[in-house]
Amino acid sequence: MGLTDDFDEDDRPQLDPSTLALLQEFYTERDERQKQFEDLKAKAEDEFDSSKPLSMDLFAESWQDSQFWYKDETATILAEQLLDGVTEDSKIAVVSAPSVYIQLRNLLNDRERYPIRPKLMLLEFDERFAVFKDDFTFYDYKQPTKLDPSLKGSFDRIICDPPFLNEDCQSKAALTIRWLAKTWEAPLRLIQCTGERMESLAHKLYGKAGMRTTTFLPEHSKGLSNEFRCYANFECDAWKFQS
The sheet that has 136-138: what strands, in order across it? Predict the structure, then answer.
């Protein structure tokens, strides 16, 4: 007699209905996001309809890659500070902060508010963002200056959110920022969002650029256990230097 002869259908492991429903919901949402992303990719192969707002919902977070997207409100505030006072010559580098890049594009759709469109460049490890074509450059913090030479010394507005809260990642990201920056003094607008425990290192790495801890507290769409802070070398309506 084979083993299967004694195996009854009722003996098969089964999920309870509520768990099964949650699993089905997860797969349905995943498939919908994938379809939206494929549609976005197909449209990018021709040309984006820049009049339609973009959403980070198209790009699911990967905790394994330390991806934690900002809330739209946070990303918008950061993007507004990068756009404040832009000129025809302005170039904005967004390093490992794709949610800010998305809001930059959305804000620039308002031609009345932002008649000048500065050059944007997203430096990012996640190659899904290559759908943004000329605005995308693959970036691995482990190789901080392995980038297109044309980017060197080109940017007067930079935001960076290093993916990991350790000295190695933060220091290499700082090398990238220094390499990208047109100058290390005014009129450079420099923002870094990272963990509170990186404060002393941030001041050390960017002190000569005038970076200080600000009163603005970035928030993430799905929450984050680490206390996060915004560091910058300028004050604005959205924040002041922390006393």
Answer: 136-138, 119-124, 91-95, 157-160, 189-195, 228-232, 212-213
Same domain, 33 and 141: no
Q: How far apart are CA 235 and CA 75, in angstroms?
A: 17
Q: Point out which residues pair with 230 in neighbouring strands.
A: 193
Helices (H), 84-166: 98-108
- Write the pLDDT tens digit of every residue in 127-152: 999 999 999 999 999 999 999 999 99
Does residue 144 form part of some domain?
yes
Q: Which residues pair with 137 in a beta bridge?
A: 123
DSSP state of 93: E
CATH of the domain at 180: 3.40.50.150
Q: How many domains does the chain have?
A: 2
Enter the pTM of the model. Answer: 0.80
